[in-house]
Amino acid sequence: MQPSPIIAFMLGEQPDSQGRWISDIWQLSPFWREFKHDYIQWLFPLERRERYEGHKPILSLDDQAFAKTSLLLQENQRKSLDMMCQHWGLVRAGLAFSVVENLSKREHRWIKPYDHNQLRITRAIRSLALCGQKELALALQQAVLQIGPVYGNVDQKAIDHWQRALDDL
């Protein structure tokens, strides 16, 4: 059976809908990561489409079953997470998350009252769990719930999203 486009992308076997390979995305600049909005759905796919995502990939039940058994897919998703953590001013060591020395609202916008990176974090939490990495998803969830309010002034709406990211899984 042929893997779905999202699985093939996550395995590094085919590009996304814009012709980008996962390994290329890992190398792109922080500026690019901040201002491009059409890649995060490929790195952290969900089982349903969110608002304004009519053409983005969906992680079907078959895809989820495959992801839960694919060590390569999970490793690649962790590389994607590490790239995004760097962007967010976080460092991951296994299941532990810490902040970079210069974590600031100016450089790491997710700790402001509202920022699109807060939704990206919610997506990453849920996608990790859907792909068989629930412990890592829980660790990320707990980290942002603790770090966000301490280092910034994250609004309650973002906190609610993070708290509900794993509901019904």
Structural key phrases:
169 residues, two-stranded antiparallel ribbon, 5% strand, globular
Would you summarize the structure shown here?
53% of the residues lie in helices and 5% in strands. It has helices at 5-10, 22-27, 30-35, 40-43, 61-67, 71-88, 116-130, 134-151, 156-164, and strands spanning 90-93, 96-99. Strands 1-2 form a two-stranded antiparallel sheet.
Largest sheet: 2 strands, antiparallel
State the helicity in percent bands. Answer: 40-55%
Mean pLDDT: 93
Largest sheet strand order: 1-2
Helix tally? 9
Work out the strand percent: under 5%
Order of helices and strands: HHHHHHEEHHH
Shape: globular
Taking all Cα atoms into account, the compactness measure Rg is 15 Å
Intertermini distance:
27 Å
Number of strands: 2
List low-pLDDT spans.
none
Oligomer: single chain
Q: Pairing-aware structural class of the strands and helices?
A: mainly alpha
Describe the structure.
The protein contains nine helices and two strands, in the order ααααααββααα. A two-stranded antiparallel sheet has the order 1-2. Strand 1 and strand 2 form a beta hairpin. 53% of the residues lie in helices and 5% in strands.
